[in-house]
Design brief:
Strand order of the largest sheet: 5-2-1-6-7
Structural class: alpha/beta
Distance between the termini: 27 Å
Number of helices: 4
Strand content: 15-25%
Length: 158
């Protein structure tokens, strides 16, 4: 994980209890993982998650997952060259979330998006995962994979 784009207001939180203790059955969300790639559906998911986090006094863990199977992976002399998309998105997030009144952190990962988001949510004991609806006919829907595999609430925003 890369800590690019950490908002100064971010505090690592797990649930809402002091000292980062986890509570089962608490009222409202404490931490939401949001899949974000800069697309329209991911921006809708971010807006929805930010509103939910503001109302529940929760934090957002926003993740960009670079799939190693995408066209953005280029090879030069046998070694992969991956554009610095994560750094570009971190700057966009600062602009989009300015004044939203929520604590957030951005991480950039590589791998299968559905598995990476679920693993991130599991590691940080997040209450849910928020993703945008995929409109791509070229690859499987991250939302559909999460709905089948995830061990927590998955919100799919159109």
């Amino acid at each position: 994980m890369s800590g690019n784009g950490i908002d100064p207001q971010w505090e690592p939180v797990t649930g809402r209890l002091p000292a980062g203790q986890f509570e089962i059955g608490k009222d409202g969300a404490g931490l939401l993982v949001v899949g974000f790639d800069g697309s329209g559906p991911s921006r809708n998911a971010l807006a929805y998650a930010a509103g939910l986090a503001r109302r529940d006094d929760a934090a957002l863990l926003i993740a960009f997952v670079e799939s190693l199977n995408t066209a953005s992976l280029w090879f030069f002399a046998g070694s992969p060259i991956i554009p610095d998309s994560g750094a570009d998105l971190a700057e966009e997030l600062r602009d989009e979330l300015r004044g939203a009144g929520v604590r957030w952190r951005f991480v950039s990962l590589r791998g299968d998006p559905a598995r990476a988001l679920e693993s991130l949510a599991s590691t940080h004991m997040a209450d849910g995962i928020v993703v945008g609806r995929s409109r791509s006919p070229w690859r499987g829907s991250v939302a559909a994979h999460l709905a089948k595999r995830a061990h927590r609430t998955v919100l799919v925003v159109p």
